[in-house]
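Run log, item B.
One chain of 415 residues. Sequence copied directly from the ordering sheet:
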Amino acid sequence: MSQWYPKKGRVIFHLDMNSFYASVEMAYNPKLKGKPVAIAGNPEQRKGIIVTSSYEARAKGVKTTMQLWQAKKLCPELIVLRPNFERYRTASMEMFKMLAEITPFVQPVSIDEGYMDITESEHHGTPIEIAQNLQHKIHHELDLPCSIGIAPNKFLAKMASDMKKPLGITILRKRDLSHKLWPLPIEEMYGVGEKTAEKLRTIKITTIGDLAKGDVYQLKRVLGINGERLNNRANGIDTRSVDPEAIHEFKSIGSSQTLPEDTTNEAEIRNLMHQLTDNVERRMKRKQAAGRSVQIMIRYYDHKTITRSKKMHGYIEKKEDILHIANELFQKHWNLDPIRLLGITVQDVDEKQNIAKQLDLFTYEEEAGKEKLYAVIDELSQKYGKNPFKQLQNEVKDEQPRTSFQKDFLDDFKR
């Protein structure tokens, strides 16, 4: 057993649920099993994007973020379902409970993946036995498939869990790097996005092995400090611990959403900005936090994405303040091209109990008066179900899956 549990090293799992949303729908309705299934918004009107799809759909070329009409063209028999987030949230909570039965060192990363440090779980068996038993339990009790990576650190565990899907268990040790990891294309490395891969290719780095053997000085010149970090990871070096408390850390609070279709309609955009700032305000209230800068993200029809931000002298937390600055940024930087996605984020966030806000003699009365007004509005909102002073807006009945749902889940996981 000691060969599996070294005295100085760690044994880390990365558990990744396979095609999670689609798998949950199949568990709920077994008639869907073995069929091409996709989760997307507004399937009746063929709008929206693919959030996830079953492996049967992926075999036909259906991919995440693909436009629904494109997916239907590739796979006419595709079964498209609206997302049921409460169903996914419930399944995820049950899955994480099973992880916590093995070790207290569990770090959720999103609704469908997390890390476990099982170094002190020798009484449960060998790592392989623990992984097999856990995978079987999740599959047997929840009817959901998962893949598990086993490694001495978080990066290698994450890479290992991606190597066999669905229902895979992969061990990735440092001595395995040369034949299991290094031959892979650079874009398959966790932490290397499309733009980073392009930059690496300009210096003739096309595989993870090339990156591992690359000149650190040159990598830092091309990618900054991230170049050295990626070089370390490619060589199997990652000192990060599995931290159950990491879920409580936050420096920004945001919300983003893909529009049903690319648009230049200002009324539709304005309505979405109200929804996004509602979400941000609610999350900040839940965390009892405030922030000092606001950022907007605009993604255009051609996937070109810009982010712009503005920093304030004081902290803000209310929707009207966030929306005012977001609108100002949007009007200044929108180039009038059709928009695919909008995001609003409050940055430089801290808990209110940590913020020592200095109110001078001239602003104290105004601030105190606002707090009384906010308290009355909150009281009436609780009584009547919504803010009675908000302007009426057209309801958007066809809700699209929001890209910030993962963060929503993590917010709820903390409570």
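Observations after the first pass:
- The first strand starts at residue 12 and ends at 17.
- DSSP finds 15 helices and 13 strands in the chain.
Flagged for discussion on Thursday.
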